[in-house]
Design brief:
- This protein has three helices and ten strands; from the N terminus they run E-E-E-E-E-H-H-E-E-E-E-E-H.
- The chain is mainly β.
- The longest helix is centred in the C-terminal third of the chain and has 8 residues.
- About 19% of the residues have low confidence.
Length: 176
């Protein structure tokens, strides 16, 4: 893998990196419209600045946990599946206000002219000081659910494994 600036984020206790050139924006989870008949990890469709794209709970997609989906559920109406993607606080529920503390980060990533919103646990850093990545091998002992979406592995500044996201594979599987 070549050198370049990467956005580092956390999902399910793992550190991931994606090339900054693929990230269109990082924002709080935008309001979404649910899509009937889709997996739980599909939070719905978002319309942001003239672009319509699917939003997925990346942790749930990887089969790790569905913390982002749970955080996105409406807590005060009991209609979580009908209102996935926008968590309202008790005081702002009537107005539909989304609070900054409750909205998980969402990365809008682009590949081959399409966009995808991926909800992550935490944004960490933009870094160009990432050690050169190596091919994924048995020595990395990645969970089987994650392996197809990791193009390479490097070490981050804190010596934790940094998983370079295979964006093409992610788009192929989400939009299949």
């Amino acid at each position: 893998m070549g050198h370049g600036r990467r956005l580092v984020f956390e999902v399910g206790g793992h550190l991931f990196a994606v090339e900054v050139s693929r990230v269109r924006e990082a924002l709080d989870l935008p309001p979404t419209t649910p899509l009937p008949g889709t997996p739980e990890w599909v939070l719905g469709l978002a319309h942001v600045r003239g672009h319509l794209f699917a939003v997925v709970d990346f942790s749930g997609f990887l089969g790790l946990s569905t913390a982002a989906a749970a955080a996105a559920a409406v807590s005060d109406t009991g209609q979580a599946s009908a209102a996935r993607g926008s968590r309202r606080d008790q005081a702002g529920a009537a107005e539909g206000a989304v609070t900054d503390e409750e909205a998980p980060p969402c990365l809008v990533v682009e590949h081959a002219g399409r966009r995808l919103g991926i909800v992550v646990s935490k944004l960490r850093d933009v870094s160009d000081s990432v050690e050169e990545a190596s091919e994924v091998s048995r020595e990395h002992e990645l969970p089987v659910e994650i392996q197809p979406y990791v193009a390479a592995v490097a070490k981050f500044e804190d010596d934790r494994p940094l998983l370079h996201l295979n964006v093409a594979r992610l788009f192929a599987d989400v939009y299949a």
